Amino acid sequence: QGCALLPCACAAHCSPGSLEAAMRVLLLGAGGGLGRALARTLQRKSWTTFGADVAACPPEVSVAITLPREPKGQLEVLRGALKQQDGGPKLDAIVNCSGGFAMGNAASEDLLDNAEAMVASSFYASLVSARIASSSLRPGGLLVLPGAAAAPLALPGLLPYVPVKSAVHSLVRSLAADPAEAGLPEGAKVVALAPVTLDTPMNREAMPDADHSTWTPLDRVCEEIVAWAEGSAVGGAIYEPRTAAGATTFVNVAAAA
After folding, report:
1. Are 143 and 93 in contact (CB under 8 A)?
2. What is the pLDDT of residues 41-88, one digit of tens each?
3. What global pTM score does this model have?
4. Which of 166, 173, 191, 207 has a CA positioned 20 to 30 A from the CA of residue 238?
């Protein structure tokens, strides 16, 4: 598969000055619940958003990039799409909203299939993000990878999920320890978003009887990611959103470890 480059949905409503001042963000997993919410948030800010997904991207992205499923193919398509931007400024942020979820124990018939899917959607997708960041992210830019609050836990029924998310957290720590030595631009900030449960339409459908009051609203996550892109992120942070009584705080659990 190749890439479909679409014009900015808001271009007719944005002044040239506001576009020039806007940040440039690559949004992977743009077709998921969080990706779609973030695309809407960035459009409201008149930021240039390159949305990429194996599924359809939302209309709010500035450029839609259709990805193949193979990691090497994804890397090639992303490189090609970014090169078509006429040598524009480098990206201010790369946000990977991919991730997925899978259950299973050692006796599960679909254990290997689920594990392969999780490695592809979380770990390989994170490596692809880092590879793009090495050449397309500006110095001091932001890279957000898809972690999980469950990553450090011992959960026998989540064998395809927890070890893969732990690997993403390890990748964040290694990239953030010395970004330049890790192959990233000087001063790049690498963080993980490590939610318990995000309040997405898919999660609502899958768990209609759950206590939704502890789920983290997507708009609050988008607001926080924007703040990180604008400079508030701490490199190496594992940000766990904690929601209670209608309020959400983002705790850097890496600092507490």
Report:
1. yes
2. 999 999 999 999 999 999 999 999 999 999 999 999 999 999 987 667
3. 0.90
4. 207
Query: What's the whole-number mean pLDDT along residues 216-222?
Result: 93
The dihedrals phi and psi of 124, each to the nearest 5 degrees, come to: -60, -40
Highest mean pLDDT pick, 83-92, 123-132, 197-206, 237-246: 123-132
Is 161 catalytic? The answer is: yes
The SS3 of residue 197 is coil
The answer for residues whose C-beta is within 8 angstroms of residue 3's C-beta and 6 or more apart is 65, 66, 67, 77, 78, 80, 81
DSSP per-residue string spanning 29-57: TTTSHHHHHHHHHHHHTT-EEEEEESSPP
Task: Give the CA-trace dihedral at 52, 55, 58, 62, to 10 degrees.
Answer: 30
Catalytic residue among 123, 124, 161, 250: 161
Given a contact cutoff of 8 angstroms between Cβ atoms, the answer to whether 146 and 125 are in contact is: yes
